[in-house]
Each structure stands twice: as C-alpha cells, then as structure tokens.
Amino acid sequence: MAGFWRDLAELVRAPAALSVPGDVVAGAAAAGGLGPRTAGLAGASVCLYWAGMAANDWADRDLDAVERPQRPIPSGRVTPGTALAVAAGLTTVSLALTAATGGRRALAVGVPLTAAVWAYDLWAKNTAAGPAVMATCRGLDVLLGAAGAGRVRPALPAALAVAAHTYTVTELSRSEVSGADPRLPAATLAGTAAIALASAAPAIRRTAPGSPGAGPGQWWRAAVATGLAGWYAARYGAAQTAVIHDPAPEQVRAAVGAGIVGLPALQGALTARAAATPGPLATAVGLAVSVAAPIGRRLARKVSPT
Q1: What is the pTM for the complete model shown?
Q2: Which of 3, 11, 193, 299 has the fewest CB atoms within 10 Å around its CB?
Q3: Nearest to 275 by CA among 158, 175, 180
Q4: What is the per-residue pLDDT across 74-90, written as a single tens digit (0 to 9) for each?
Q5: pLDDT tens, 216-229?
Q6: Cα distances (angstroms) measured from residue 72 to each of 13, 14, 67, 90, 187
Q7: Is the dihedral of CA 163, 165, 167, 173 positive or negative?
Q8: Burial track 205-222 (b if 16+ CB lie within 10 A, e otherwise)
C-alpha cells in the first residue's frame, strides 16, 4: 500500500505543490484580503495542481513510454484509468472547495482556471501556445486569491510576475529531453532578473522621503521583499546559467526543477511588498511563504517535481 501512495505522489509531483499556495496568498495580500478564505482557496489550488499533473501524464502516456519510461504510467505502476480518475476527482474537489470558500466571485476565476489547466494538458502543451497557456494558469491562480477578497484588480501586477516566471520555466521544460539551445536559457535568465527587480521595486519606492507611510516599517518591508526577490533570482538564475554553459537535458531538468521549487521565494517577495496589507502582516506571511522553497528542494530529492 505504501508503494501505491508513493506512486501517486510521483504521478501528481506532490512536492511541487508547495509552490502553489503562495500564488493565492500573494493575490490575497495584494487585495488586502488575507484571512480564512485564503487557506481554503489555497487548498483548492493545490488540488487543481495535482489534478493537472495527473492529467498531464495521462495525456502523455504514449510519448512517455518512449521518452520517460520510468514515469508511473508507462512503467505500469499506475494505470491510465487510475490517473484519469485521480485527475477528475481532484478537479471536482478543487471546484467544490472554491465554491464553498469563495462563492461566486472565486468561481468566476476558478472555472476559467480549471479550463485553462485542462486545455494545457489536452491540447496546448505541445503547441507554440503552451508556455502562454501555462503562464495564464498561474496568473489566474494568483487572481483566485484576490477573488476571495472580492478585489481582483490590485493583484494584477503580482499575477503578471508569477505568469512571467511560469513562462520561463515552461519554455525551458520543452527542452528537458533534447537539450537546449544556449540562447534559450540566456533569454529566460534575463527575464528572471527583470521579474526579480520588478517584484522588489514597489516596496523600495515606498521608502523614498515623502512617500506615504515612509519610515522604519517600510524599510523593513522593502528589505524583506528585496531579499526574497534576490534569493529567487540567485537560485533560479544559477541553474539557468549552468544550462548556458552546458545545455544538456539533465541540466535543463535541473533548471526547471529550480524554477518550480524556487517560486515560493518570488511569491514571498510579492506578498511582503503588498501595500494593501499591513506591513508586519505582509512581511511575516511573505517570509512564511518563502519557507516552502528550501522544503521543496529537500523533498524534490525524493520525488521529482518535473
């Protein structure tokens, strides 16, 4: 029985789900709505992420039999029917949690998010639209947290930052089997640097003399946001730099893994900078979200996040 649950954990890339709650938290913080609803919507988001991973492997079962025969379905450890049932069941749970926690406003984001996840797995993944669709999924995930607070617009900058990061990871992941042209990681590395700078900049601007609320509290918030954004850029950037020097498939997979498990540091920076949330709460929650990054790296040694 233990082996069965381990196989399911591998199917849904269980450790990678640590990168998911921070989307909802960052969105809720940007909208000034951190609270009990945030936890429920984060749970819904995790269920949908796991559903997407199971649906991904179900859709790719024939290709994986050639390129990744060690995965649960082609290796025979999980049947295609079981994978599809897991995907459908988790999707149902996700939508039920979304409705129960956030009501119609959350469903107005959760339903398109669910459609985008399934569209990626069943259609877009192997097309030129793949990275953009996946980026849309993660951007909508941020907006799901804001919808729980009833205000989506304030979370758009955070959603764009997470979506841009996701685009870089997805572009890299398309070279996991064949290896990458060095120009690709160079481009994604430039994108990572820009995302990190943009994520810390609002908090830094609010420390300028004459800015509303400028003072020690804003300096502390800016320090946390900048530190987390720098940590994100350093960890993910180092992995992308390694691909520039050696674009072999194993280096690409390592960079993709670094992008997945390093996302909580970016989410933490976005949470800490949120002007709509009181400074002490925003910085404390941002730091808490970022803790998922080192935990995810440890768990990734046992179950691959890619």
Answers
A1: 0.94
A2: 3
A3: 158
A4: 999 999 999 999 999 99
A5: 668 888 999 999 99
A6: 11, 13, 13, 18, 33
A7: negative
A8: ebbeeeeeeeeeebebbb
Residues whose CB falls within 8 Å of the CB of residue 6, separated by 6 or more in sequence, listed in order: 303
State the residue for tokens 């280096």: 251
Q: What are the structural domain ranges in the chain?
A: 2-300
CATH superfamily placement of domain 2-300: UbiA prenyltransferase (1.10.357.140)
Instruction: Quote the CA–CA distance of 143 and 238 in Å, as a whole number.
Output: 29
Q: What single DSSP character describes residue 127?
A: S
Helices marked H in 123-155? 130-148
**What phi-psi label fits residue 79: left (phi over 0), alpha (psi between -120 and 50 degrees) or beta?**
beta
Non-local CB neighbours of 125 within 8 Å, separated by 6+ positions: 56, 59, 60, 133, 134
> How far is the C-alpha of 288 from the C-alpha of 280, rounded, in Å?
12
